[in-house]
Amino acid sequence: MRPTHLHQHRSPVACIVPPDLLRDIIRNGTEEERWAAADTMAIDTTFRTLRAAFAATVAATKVAMLPMGGQGGQPQRTIYDQKNSTAIALGTVARTEGQPAVRDAAVNEAYDGFGATYKFFWEVLGRNSTDNAGMPILGLVHYSTNYANAFWDGQGHMFFGDGDGRLFVRLTKSVDVIGHELAHGVTQYEANLVYQGQSGALNESMSDVFGSLVKQYAKNQTAKQADWLIGKDVVGPTLKPALRSMKAPGTANPYDKQPANMDKFVYTAADNGGVHINSGIPNHAFYVAATAMGGKAWEKAGRIWYDSLRDAKIRPTSGFKAFARATVRQAQMRFGDTSAEVDAVRAGWDKAKVKM
Length: 356
Ligand SMILES: [Zn+2]
What we know:
It is a single chain. By secondary structure, the chain is an alpha/beta fold. The chain folds into 2 domains: 11-189, Roll (Elastase, domain 1), CATH 3.10.170; 197-351, Neutral Protease Domain 2 (Neutral Protease, domain 2, Orthogonal Bundle). It contains 11 helices and 8 strands. It has a 6-stranded mixed β-sheet, covered by helices on one side. It is globular.
């Protein structure tokens, strides 16, 4: 059973908007909101079915696009215009690396968001793109019609919908959402956390952590100045003010049910075992650790979390406890056994009630 299980989740379709949230809106929203949520859910399901065919279609293109050299510091971005299609092929090339801005805002936002994300990983963590070997960064915008989601397909493509205007507006508008999707690629190439249960929630949390750090780095904010919200610029009126909050999980919008600690851990079969819900727990641990350390969150806490994602003891099925232990170990190695940074990391997991 186990190898099959792992295989199923090796290349997950990892999205920013959880299916439960859509289900909840279908139950409790206004008629227009219910239609928008149902449409997005239907497209998500269809895409999961078609994904294998899509991978085969674009495989040839990807080979032709491999980077020329191994040197880092330069992203290789291509943005495709899907022209509202759900067809399983790459759309029209709208902007490639080095080309000036075009008239389409979604194309430029994806291009710039990828640039900010690449810059963060390169300048702060010395990482050269998702695979750390200069992998091209491919964005597909205007995917489907009124599609209220964005996702990493597990095969190197990031898809962005235009939103329905009520739940979400254009999904390229928040740099943390773009960072979130690209970070799914980084996680896949490192710990390859299985997108199910605790390891899945950890996978989601890594994307929120790095997505938030990309935003904080671009704005040059301290941990104290940062809003710690995810998706503030992509939510429509129904989900204002944001999709998630790392500072106060469960309070980002009327539908936000994220727990902030293990006492409130949600056991559910939905959403791959609540991956977008229980991610609130490690998200909050990071927030507490980063603010306790002070300064810029990427300088110490971000580095510790990144080192932990690459820690030899972290396996695809690792849960919160294993990851918490890795962060303490990495903080000890980098800052010393009795350092304030180690205390801050412990305080974070303590607040999230994750026992080590
Ligand atoms: Zn995600």
